Amino acid sequence: TGFYPVSGGQPSDLGSIVRDDEEFKVLQVEPAQDGIVHILDRAGLVPGNRVHAVLDWKRRYRFMQSHTACHILSAVIFKETGAKITGNQIEVSRSRVDFSLESFDKARMFEYVEKANRIIAEDYPVTTKILPRAEALAIPDLVRLAMNGPDREEIRVVEIKGVDLQACGGTHVQRTGEIGKIKMIKAENKGKANRRVYFALDG
Questions:
Q1: Distance CA 124, CA 7 (A)
Q2: What is the C-alpha separation between 143 and 155, in angstroms, rounded?
Q3: What angle do CA 38, 199, 81 make, to 5 degrees?
Q4: What is the secondary structure of 46-113 as a DSSP string?
Q5: CA-to-CA distance for 203 and 201, rounded, in angstroms?
Q6: Mean pLDDT (whole number) for 28-45
Q7: In this predicted model, what pLDDT tens digit does every residue of 72-101 receive, in sequence order?
Q8: For residues 112 and 76, is the Cβ–Cβ distance under 8 A?
Q9: What single DSSP character describes residue 4?
Q10: Which fold has domain 59-201?
């Protein structure tokens, strides 16, 4: 399928599946044990139907921009503080990233966002590759999650050349310049050693 299923803090793609001139709206896409499930607005499609998919590209592209921005911002904060990611959620209007930080300085967070914007403006290439699990996990700091890393035989790796290298299954832009700029909306304490940063695409 061309539709991204909800996963890793990124919502699923939306759009439609068309059979002849009949449109079935895609309301949600989810991973399942034996594949990917497309939840439609009504029944009617049957195995063997010839269809084509229409993706809500504006929504998908915004998620691509935001997801790559998450990687850049988390790379900056990791480099500055060593903080790992404890959670994230990408949305159309804004996104958030949670970090395992003991101390919290909101002014420093604004500085980190500005550093991220300078990286974005450099227009670095963004590439993906699939590596065997052992090879991937041998890369220092590849998995920056505070929780357990991916449990798969092969791991997808996203690289922002010279900036970041992370295990990730999400969608991304091809170059950082496509993001434009990001702006910090707010920063919050979310309990002991857990800090949350909200940001949005600026434009």
A1: 25
A2: 10
A3: 110
A4: -TT---EEEE-HHHHHHHHHHHHHHHHHHHHHHHHH-PPEEEEEE-SS-EEEEE--SS--HHHHHHHH
A5: 6
A6: 95
A7: 999 999 999 999 899 999 999 999 999 998
A8: yes
A9: P
A10: Threonyl-tRNA Synthetase; Chain A, domain 2 (3.30.980)
State residue 189 phi and psi, 5-degree precision.
Answer: -85, 130
Which helix (H) or strand (E) segment holds residue 114: the answer is helix 106-121
Count Cβ neighbours within 10 Å for each residue of 28-61 and write b for 16 or more, e otherwise.
ebeeeeeeeebeeeeeeeeeeeeeeeebeeeebe
Which residues, other chains included, contact 65 with Cβ-Cβ below 8 Å and sequence gap of 6+? 173, 178, 179, 180, 201
Neighbours of 9 (CB within 10 A): 18
pLDDT value, residue 151? 67
Element (DSSP H or E) covering residue 136 = helix 133-137
Domain residue spans in the chain? 15-55, 59-201
Burial status of residue 11 (CB atoms within 10 A of its CB: 0-12, 13-18, 19 or more): middle
Model confidence pLDDT, tens digit, residues 134-165: 898 888 877 666 555 566 789 999 999 999 99
Q: Residues 81, 168: contact at Cβ < 8 Å?
A: no
